[in-house]
Design brief:
The structure is a single chain. The strands form four sheets. An eight-stranded mixed sheet has the order 7-8-10-9-13-17-14-15, with helices on both faces. Strands 1-6-5-2-4-3 form a six-stranded mixed sheet, covered by helices on one side. It folds into two domains: about 140 residues, Leucine Aminopeptidase, subunit E, domain 1 (3-Layer(aba) Sandwich), CATH 3.40.220; about 300 residues, Zn peptidases (Aminopeptidase). The radius of gyration is 24 Å and the shape is elongated. It has 14 helices and 19 strands. Helix 2 packs parallel to helix 3, helix 7 runs antiparallel to helix 10 and helix 9 runs parallel beside helix 14. The two termini are about 25 Å apart. With about 475 residues, the protein is an alpha/beta fold. The structure holds ligand BES, manganese (II) ion and zinc ion. Ligand BES binds next to helix 11.
């Protein structure tokens, strides 16, 4: 898709012109408000659309009026949602060339571009008949540099969405490693099983040992010449989560190809990091593997030793993400970075608590958690803080090892977070649980079913600020 800034829509001869209408107001286009839109027909309610045919009275054959709700409640984030809605609506109507002339009163270039990409997105790689898409989008009253910024973020999101929508037969640990090695402007080291053993990552190795597809530990590094700080972002990379010997019921397993959505987020960010050019050193880390039941699988009751020497009794092989993250957190801690942020489809409990609406966040530093949360909110992702009271650790006690890998059913998102904390040393750390938001069962706001690219916008905004 092409996205461009223009002076006036008369320059481009579009198939359709999109104009904005706030509730109880008129659009800025006389033609529309005087002659065509009667507020009885269309009242401008937020995120609704109204398609008009201009019946030869106007150069452009169609006008889409975009309901924007109450003017005083409008925001950049709402601009993104309504623009996505417009593009999605027009793509379905087979419109290819779309000009937006919107009366938002602020530069909506960045948010508009992200919205256009989200609205145009679908995953149809494996379909013989491709879905309809808009091909050209033009915006008036926006700055070209904002479009460029939006495009980078949108492309990183699409990269992550594609990867998490891919079936597990494609997105294997090996595939993630190949992708990481192919990225521009990052130095990548991939460790194979023997090297992972040498690094003493006993928790991670155990999770991967049941699969025919061997684990790959991926470390990407972006170096900035005058780095102000050093950050590691770790993505949970379970390429398929069957539950292992504690196997999941069929319905719960159905979407477990997306258990690498955290990894997809990290790869999406690293795919554009060179162009983002932040003054921060960024390490992207993924302990990729599959959680499978087999004759070689790890078993309930096994006692594992993580990279930092701590021992873990396996209470449930389906609590595998935290085992892989444990070793990745040790590895990141040893890099001596200032901040570590992990992002993971970690617990059903977080999904039960917050639904698909917002992600959970916790950490060992209030300021970091607040800053990540604010960066997310500013760019349209919602995070809500999970409690970290010591009592949530009670369930993690083991009689035979330093801890167990589960802390009981209740409070599961917090106990999982406190489990992870045991493997962080000498760094500020935040943990983001995207189990509920990474993959949608039904459309929500500007997103269709499937992968949402959770964390990409938020972490790019955080890194670049
Ligand atoms: N990958 C799942 C978490 C998940 C659930 C992600 C639903 C997306 C949607 C994770 O590995 C898992 O299985 N967690 C268990 C932990 C339990 C055994 C303590 C869970 O949440 O049920
Ligand atoms: Mn699991
Ligand atoms: Zn999992």
């Amino acid at each position: 898709m092409l996205v461009k800034s223009i002076e006036s829509f008369t320059q481009v001869n579009p198939d359709v012109l999109v104009v904005s209408l706030f509730e109880n107001s008129y659009t800025h286009i006389d033609f529309v408000n005087k002659h065509v839109v009667d507020t009885k027909d269309f009242d401008g309610k937020y995120n609704t659309t109204y398609l008009l045919s201009t019946l030869g009275q106007f150069d452009i054959a169609k006008i889409l009026v975009l309901g924007c709700g109450k003017k005083e409640e409008f925001s950049e984030n709402k601009a993104r949602v309504v623009i996505a809605k417009a593009v999605k609506t027009l793509a379905a109507l087979k419109m290819k060339k779309v000009a937006f002339d919107l009366d938002f009163g602020f530069d909506y270039g960045k948010f508009g571009t992200i919205g256009a990409y989200i609205g145009n997105y679908s995953f149809d790689k494996y379909k013989n008949k491709k879905n309809e898409r808009v091909e050209e989008v033009y915006f008036t009253k926006v700055c070209p540099c904002q479009i460029e910024e939006g495009e980078l973020i949108a492309k990183a999101m699409n990269f992550a969405r594609d990867l998490a929508n891919e079936p597990a037969q494609y997105a294997t640990p090996q595939k993630l490693a190949e992708i990481a090695l192919s990225l521009d402007g990052v130095e990548t080291k991939v460790y194979d099983v023997e090297e992972i053993k040498a690094m003493k990552m006993g928790a991670y190795l155990a999770v991967g040992q049941g699969s025919a597809n061997p684990p790959k530990f991926i470390h990407m590094k972006y170096s900035a010449p005058n780095a102000k700080k050093r950050i590691a972002i770790i993505g949970k990379g379970i390429c398929f989560d069957s539950g292992g010997l504690d196997i999941k019921p069929a319905a719960s397993m159905l979407t477990m190809k997306d258990d690498m959505a955290g990894a997809a987020c990290v790869l999406g960010i690293m795919s554009v990091i060179k162009k983002l050019n932040p003054e921060v050193e960024v390490h992207g880390i993924i302990a990729a593997c599959e959680n499978m039941p087999s004759g070689t699988a790890y078993k309930p009751g096994d006692i594992l030793t993580a990279k930092n020497g701590k021992t873990i009794e396996v209470d449930n092989t389906d609590a595998e993400g935290r085992l892989t993250l444990a070793d990745a957190l040790c590895y990141a801690s040893e890099l001596g970075v200032d901040e570590i942020i992990d992002i993971a489809t970690l617990t059903g409990a977080c999904s039960v608590a917050f639904g698909a609406v917002c992600a959970g966040i916790l950490g060992n530093c209030d300021e970091l958690v607040r800053n990540v949360k604010d960066a997310a909110f500013e760019i349209g992702e919602k995070y809500w803080e999970l409690p970290t009271y010591e009592e949530y650790k009670n369930g993690l006690k083991s009689e035979v090892a330093d801890m167990r890998n589960t802390g009981g059913r209740s409070g599961g998102a917090s106990s999982a977070g406190l489990f992870l904390k045991e493997f962080v040393s000498n760094a500020k750390w935040a943990h983001i649980d995207i189990a509920g938001v990474a993959f949608l069962d039904a459309p929500l706001n500007e997103f269709i079913k499937g992968s949402t690219g959770s964390g990409v916008r938020a972490l790019i905004n955080y890194i670049c600020k």
